[in-house]
Amino acid sequence: MRSSLILDTVTRGAFPLVLVFSLYLLFVGHNAPGGGFVGGLTAGAAFVLLYAGGGIQRVHEVVPMRYENVLGAGLLLAGVTGLGSLVLGEPFLSSAIVKWHPPLLGEIKLVTVLFFDIGVYVIVVGMVIALLTVLGAYGDDPDRMPSMVDRPATTRRDRRGIRRTRQ
Amino acid sequence: MIVLPIAVPLVAAALSLLLSRWRTAQRAISVLTCVAVVVLATVILFEADANTAIVSQLGGWPAPFGITLIADRFAAIMLLISSIMTVVVLVYALGQLDDEREFRLHFHPVYLVLSAGISASFLTGDLFNLFVAFEVMLIASYVLITLGATRGQIRAGMTYVVINLLASTLFVAAVAFIYAATGTVNMAQLAIRLAELPDGLRTALGYLLLVVFGVKAGIFPLFFWLPDSYPAAPAPVTALFAGLLTKVGVYTLIRTQTLLFPPGGGSSQVILIIAGATMLIGVLGAIAQNDIKRILSFHIISQIGYMIFGLGLFTLAGIAGAVYYIVHHIVVKTSLFLVGGMIETASGSGTLRNLGGVARRAPVLGLLFLTAAFSLAGLPPFSGFVAKLALIQEGLDLQRGGIVAVSLLVSLLTLFSMTKIWGGAFWGKPQDVKGVIDGTERPLTMKLNPLMLGATTVLVGLSVVISVAATPLYALSERAAETLVDRQPYIEAVLGPDQVALP
Amino acid sequence: MTLALAAVVAVLFAVGTYLLLQRTLTRVVLGLAIMGHGANLLLQLAGGRAGQPPVVEEGGGTAIVGSAGGAGFVDPLPQALALTAIVISFGMTAYLLAMAYRSWVMHRSDEVEDDVEDRRIARKATTADAAGDGR
After folding, report:
1. What is the ipTM score, two decimals?
2. Which H helix or E strand runs over B239?
3. Facing residue for B172 by CB, picked from C39, C47, C103
């Protein structure tokens, strides 16, 4: 895929900004517009920008993880947060509020539902990366799209540049 | 407690994704989780049976505002039987799926998500949460039905996905209308508030939900997608879908029609007519087919007619019959599909024209198939006979001669189409197989993984148990039907005892 | 205001239905997406008049959820429901697109294929009819 100089330069500046904004949305989500899903989508948009500029390789440079692991980690965090309240004898997904007064920073209010939201955020980001990897890895050249079943596993090309063990 | 059958498979799915490089770990997680859900479901069934219903409010928000989970007897029965099916089909799938499908295409996490979605659909007490549960279940089913993404699967999967998405969109629209009319999505509160609406409006909302769940359940005239899409999936997936997914639709149909839109004394003519048409069209479709999976898929439709028949009577005995029928059907249908899958795996084809002599080449398969097929057709002393007898007796008591006649005719035709499979696949001369004539062919069962054979045998055994233990099981179905017909206990369990009494 | 939005819902459903009836997969996907928007908008409308704040001012009222739009504010619950529905339709659309893409990769056609078995039985029925007429 050819890359464009303008897009590349803009991406370098915009990508971190969009990510920071997505984190802002994530953290204010418990009582203002925002939340895990919206934040995750914003971050996902940042990754799509990265993909448009430099192809799937750029995305994998930034997130050197298999998308399965990203998705799994997010789901695990969200699920464990929900179950955690069950362990404490409260109904599923109950949340607690912790207020904290560190010097200079004023009041910091932490709602445990934040961890659930972080899980959602990670899932959405993982899903966007999965989409880009599975659908976008071949750019505009569908002839190179591997058939998903017909080819034997041993000759599979590693298209993500990650060492595949135990296959 | 009752959130665990939903939460545990989800967390397990996450672990399974994280450990996707370790095959044994993935298999162990799936099997352990499914077995754990069976144990949980058993405990829930015993508790629900003792206390009428158990309720949990998510996040501790009180009933009409938060999301309610409720396991009454009907939900608990469905939860238990579905969790048993997921274990059996999982074991079968371990024996049948190739590595590509099982590991690289992430069969295990998706399967666990499907299990969570099915549990959530049974346990939810909130109309919108039911939609969410449906979508969790359906997105997993979309992946499973196209697992491997061959040309035929994409074609069939597309039909399946589009029809189900359309039904889901209608569901959202129906929830919007219901919320606009009543201002709540909590099912217990809906039961009270819907009763206060004008008759015409209430009927319209009821039929809207009938269409939505009718698509999922595959009732006449909304069944057309089913025989088209189910046969394309891998055998264990088809078996699970055939046994469970349409029954989730039937479950919600029974739940919403009895709890939210009871016809106010007497049977529902509309539902009975739909039931008759569903039975008849389904079995006629089955007779026209030539492929084992397709014949069986059309049978699902005709069997759903029987369950709707029980619902349409709207009496205690009718609904009890429907509940028992669902349990019987889930077990028998799944085992028939598993046997069909084994025939296909062993002889390389599912088309009757290319099959023959299976009874001689693999007597075990013949025995398993015959037991399940007789049960499905309703021959005594199998479970299908008990289920049909209960329905027909109640139909006669209520003097619904027409529907009873249709259901008897359909039973006969079911037997006829089963003999078609028997004659085509099990008897006759084997086609195109070298070594069959001179006896050098290895026995067919040797070509099968022992896990597949074992899982199917256990399931057929379970169907025999259902027939033997018909008396206590039917008594349980009757107790389940009691809480469905008399809605007061359900509403009190959710909203507390000081609620307005129903008219 | 609400009448205009109701008309928009009707148009969205009509356009969605039209697209859904096409044979091209991309149009089917678009049709479902548009219909989904219609359903979500309908859900919004269930919450009361548009343009009002979703939460009551302090001391401004009592019940919020379940009021289906009282005086001066809209019911926030349908908005939460619509948000959930949007999240779900996001995933579904992604999946449908993946399938449409896969279908295009495999046989370079964007059309829904016929069911082979159905064709066979339909052909059989036509032949049977023809034979019946010939008698």
Report:
1. 0.83
2. helix B235-240
3. C39
